[in-house]
Amino acid sequence: MALSVALIVSAVAIFVAMLIVMLRLFIGPSLYDRVLAVNSFGTKTVLLIAVLNFIGGRPEFLDIALLYALINFVGTIAILKFFRYRSFQMAMSSVRGRAGMPVDKEE
Amino acid sequence: MTYIPSLDMSTFVDIILLAFLLLSALAVVIMRHLFSVVMVGGVYSLLSAAFFVNLDAVDVAFTEAAVGAGVSTVLMLGALMLTARREKPVTSQHSRLPLLAVLVTGAALIYATFDMPAFGDPGSPANSYVGMDYMERTPHEIDVPNVVTAVLASYRGFDTLGEVVVVFAAGLGVLVLLGMGFTGGTAPGKDEEDQA
Q1: Of B16, B62, B74, Cβ closest to residue A88
Q2: Nearest Cα residue in chain A from B43
Q3: What is the pTM of this model?
């Protein structure tokens, strides 16, 4: 009983955190605020799914939460690569030896 | 069907997630900075994925998270590089026809839900014919606990294999057409040698 109360309290806390992160996403002055907001919103989704699965009594769905964490990570990397190189194509093809160099300076 | 614990909690979660979805959809409409719109779109996908998990449709939710939050965000960012940074303000005269189209489509969709069976209705078509057959046969025929996975990966295995082949061929075709940057004469490695 105490465990389920703790789970419900944590679900409510995650909802509050989601709301705060969404506010940062909407008003966030810089673009990096928004990227960070999306990333931490993805983390909140992972946590929410995990907590909901434990509340529902089926912790085997924890695997899905783990997969969401992976997708979230890859998505954030893609967005940051967009910032760094302004192009996904160069970001992929510049693997050979010159990964640290921004494309703009090449010309 | 071990669904007994906390049905109220599920409804409560649904209401909160739908409220968040509404908030982010409104933000997409109001915002003018396109990069922020793409970011809010990613959050919208994550929220709908959480909503689908809460409705027990984990496979749909996983597709939504992978395609909606992952791939389409990247595609939108790619499209963003070809266009302006900010959306132009829309005059109220121009927004009338799209608003009418959206309202009519929304009304039609809501009207269509009246014909749908209730959520979890045992007499609904999905639960009464071949679905129950799969539910009965899966535990002893196939050693997979999830019935949807058993149907997709075993009963309809060849169908799924064909889908995978089609998607793989489409991906290969796109890569061949777009070139990935290192086909032809403009490979970055050659540039480097020329400079040196």
Answers
A1: B74
A2: A38
A3: 0.73
Question: In angstroms, rounded to a whole number, what is the distance separating the alpha carbons of residues B133 and B151?
Answer: 11
Interatomic CA distance for residues B33 and B98, integer angstroms: 20
pLDDT of res. B180: 62
| Chain B positions in Cβ-Cβ contact with residue A4 (cut-off 8 Å) | 5-6
Which is more confident, B27 or A3? Answer: B27
Residue closest to B81 by CA, chosen among A82, A99, A92, A105? A82
Domains and CATH numbers, chain B: 9-87 (1.20.120.1200), 122-180 (no CATH)
Say whether residue B123 is in contact with chain A using an 8 A CB cutoff: no
Residue A89 has a pLDDT of 56
User: What is the residue extent of each domain of chain A?
Assistant: 2-106
Q: pLDDT band at residue B7, thresholds of 50, 70 and 90?
A: low
